[in-house]
Amino acid sequence: MDEVSPAQKVQDLIHGHVTARCLHVVARFGVADALGDEPESPHSLAEKTGLHPDALHRMLRLLAAQGIFAQEADGFVHTEASQVLRGDHPLSLRNYACLIGSQINWESFGQLAEVARAGHPVGGGFEARMKRLAQHPEEAELFNAAMRGKAARVVPAVVEAVDFDRFGRVCDVGGGSGHLIRAIVERTRSTTGILFEVPHVIAAAKDIAGPRLELAAGDFFTGDLPAADCYVLMDVLHDWNDEDARRIVTNIRRAAMPGASLFVIETMVSDRPGQYYGKILDVSMLVLTGGRERSAAELETVLEGTGFRLIREIETPARYSIAQAEAI
Question: Do 199 and 60 fall within a single domain?
Fold first, then answer.
């Protein structure tokens, strides 16, 4: 393969949004679901999905150049990457692709120049996005499905990396529909789990409660959290700026038992070259929520004065790290 020149590399990045947008559209219209085990023509796939045959052919040709689908003489076939866009794939990213390509996200990135000047989202941060989801149930449904899809590859890596059996009571703070805390309870022999979330999320999650899984409603900034000897925060602190993140951790410390552990589960950012994915997410947080992905050193700064100290960082194969802190 010929080496890509610096100018060609820049040119490819200039047009990077085109490939991403094709992937969003293909996910939205279920093209991967429509394609079976045999090669299929763009015309046949277009009939199944309601797309224009020539337009679909050109989008699939572009995606195939990136290894998402493959083009053969008889039409297009699946690759391992395109299979992940199927709704029935166990690690499906179809809903996640639809969320990232949704109108509100796409419009938000159209405001990146304004965000770069202001240093924060111009349409409001995380709270504004949650308010919008509360007002648009169809968007909320997509958001929740996307988070479940993303968690499907992260949660197994987390419960494999941490021995939660040594904790009697684990509280998942801001844990959404409870995918992580349920996995922790299922993985352990006697650990009791608690899902702490805002009232309307707890109401929607009522069916997961059981003998070893409790539900608790409240505000993680100011509410009374349950006492526990272990707290987990997965994809929570990255939604908030340093001041607000510190408020969340400080409130957890008020409830924590002496010597309690805190696990912050997020994609960490390194100042070293590479780790491209974490740096993409970091700019996404800048645009969408006003939060940030942090390095271990930046997280350590957030923890200062909260009553927790950072002990170690555990890397996982799921592009997530687990930062373990201890109550002092």
Answer: no
pLDDT tier for residue 1 given thresholds of 50, 70 and 90: low
| Domain co-membership, 229 together with 322 | yes
Residue 1 covered by a domain: no
Quick check: is 53 in a domain? yes
**Are 223 and 201 within 8 A, CB to CB?**
no
DSSP string across 136-174: -HHHHHHHHHHHHHHHHHHHHHHHHHS-GGG-SEEEEET
Residues 208 and 148 in one domain: yes
Query: What is the number of domains present in the chain?
Result: 2
Q: Which residue has the higher pLDDT, 1 or 35?
A: 35
pLDDT tens sequence across 291-316: 999 999 999 999 999 999 999 999 99
Q: Quick check: is 52 catalytic?
A: no
Phi, psi for 313 (deg, rounded to 5): -120, 130
Q: What is the mean pLDDT of residues 151-169?
A: 96
Q: Is residue 100 part of a domain?
A: no
- Spatial strand order of the sheet with 213-217 comes to 213-217, 192-197, 169-173, 230-234, 261-266, 321-327, 308-315
Rounded mean pLDDT of the chain?
94
Let me know whether 82 and 183 are in one domain. Answer: no
**Kind and range of the H or E element at 105?**
helix 103-109
- Are 148 and 64 in a shared domain? no
Q: Where are the beta strands (DSSP E) in the chain?
A: 70-72, 75-77, 169-173, 192-197, 213-217, 230-234, 261-266, 308-315, 321-327
CB distance 227 to 192 below 8 Å: no
Could you tell me the pTM of the whole model? 0.91
Position of tokens 């995380």? 126
In this prediction, residue 271 carries a pLDDT of 75
Q: Are 64 and 123 contained in the same domain?
A: no
C-alpha torsion angle, residues 78, 84, 89, 91 (rounded to 10): 150
Q: Which of 24, 57, 78, 238 is catalytic?
A: 238
CATH code of the domain in which 54 resides? 1.10.10.10
